[in-house]
Amino acid sequence: MRTKATMWLPLALFCLVNVGGPAWAEKKPNVLLILVDDLKPSFGAYGASWVHSPNLDRLAASGMRFDRAYCNQAVCAPSRNNLLVGSRSTSLGVYSLGYNFRRAVPDAVTLPQHFKHNGYHAAGIGKVFHVGHGNINDEKSWSVPFQPDKVIDYVLEESTGGQLTREEAYFSNQKLGENRSLPRGAAWEIADVEDGAYADGRIASEGIKRLQRFKETGEPFFLALGFTKPHLPFCAPTKYWDLYDRETLPLASFTTPPEGAPAYAGKTLGELNQYKPVPQNPPLSESMTRTLIHGYYAALSYMDSQVGRVLDELDRLGLRDETIVVLWGDHGYHLGDHGSWTKHTNYEQANRIPIVIVAPGVTQAGSRTSALVETVDVYPTLCDLAGLSIPAGPQPIDGQSLVPLLKQESESVRDHAYHCFPKARRLGRAIRTSRYRLVEWKRIGSDEEPDYELYDYQEDPLETRNLAGDRPDVVQQLVAKLSSHPPAVAPRRN
Question: Average per-residue pLDDT in the chain?
Answer without folding.
Answer: 94
